[in-house]
């Protein structure tokens, strides 16, 4: 095994700082309640308005969403809902008699309240609204509260629209640690959440971790992780573009290339800075690539499998021969994308599988995505909206 490129960052010091900051914030909110939340909202967002999105303001925001974007949001919602319904049907109730007179069984009972967090810092993640709220709705949760950071005077209009059609009962224009704590503690008229779901930045992830036990969580998400396994049949430009498209999630989002081809590895290493230079978010891509990106060369595909399983990436794309072999032999990943025509964007946006709940429902679930139509995930990125 050869490391052509290693990650340069050591995140441990930053993790300690985040942990201490979140602990202080949650303790203050626990003591001071809504007053502390209002203070944090002023400090971090310059927010002085009501936190609960009213019907009139929601209607005004929805009116701002272009019809083309509404059509795309409906498409993504329909796909996610269909897959969530199939997952729900796969979880069944049963009764058995293990010994004469000894009866055991399983019931499926939804929680009373789900708190759905939708990131909104660098981008407005419409897909996160659809995937969290829709899944809770299909599961039969009777009350769903959704929170997202404001962008200026409101949350993103497209996010408000997605939350509405997905079925949120209450929408809170608030993000960060104080948004998570508000849903957990049931502040500003909300019900206390039984479970908190949805991705966020490192502070949001740490807030969920510290509140776990007092409230359920889906998983500790952390930064997006993406890996590509490629061999000498892969196009270096395609590999580099797919890595860059995931690195732009944030400056601490690791992207990894595992390959048996040194020539491919060297080409990708050379191309990445060029691609980043041409992207609007190139500074983010280069920060992630410099500090967290890795390229590892293995002698055989068996060795590559071992390397990939040790990293257990959230997203894993195969651009190599013999997809069936890789599918059969790879064990540890969040979702698997087979072939050049099946990029991570499929699962993260609108193919139907869910980048939020797959880990929560199945541990480290394996969602194999093999679309026959490489154009299934339409390009529905408009401005800073990421569906």
Describe the model.
- Helix 1 packs across helix 2 and helix 1 (12-32) packs across helix 7 (176-185).
- The chain is of the alpha/beta class.
- The chain has helices spanning 12-32, 34-45, 55-64, 67-90, 126-139, 157-166, 176-185, 202-211, 236-247, 262-277, 282-292, 301-311, 323-329, 344-350, 357-362; strands spanning 2-5, 94-99, 102-106, 113-117, 124-125, 143-148, 170-173, 195-197, 216-217, 226-230, 255-259, 294-297, 315-319, 335-338, 367-369, 385-386.
- The protein is globular.
- The protein contains 15 helices and 16 strands.
Summarize the structure.
This protein is α/β, with parallel strands linked by helices.
The gross shape turns out to be globular
Major beta sheet, strand line-up? 1-12-11-10-13-14-15
Q: Which CATH C-level class of the largest domain is it? A: Alpha Beta
Instruction: From the alpha carbons, calculate the radius of gyration and give it in angstroms.
Output: 22 Å
Total discrete domains: 2
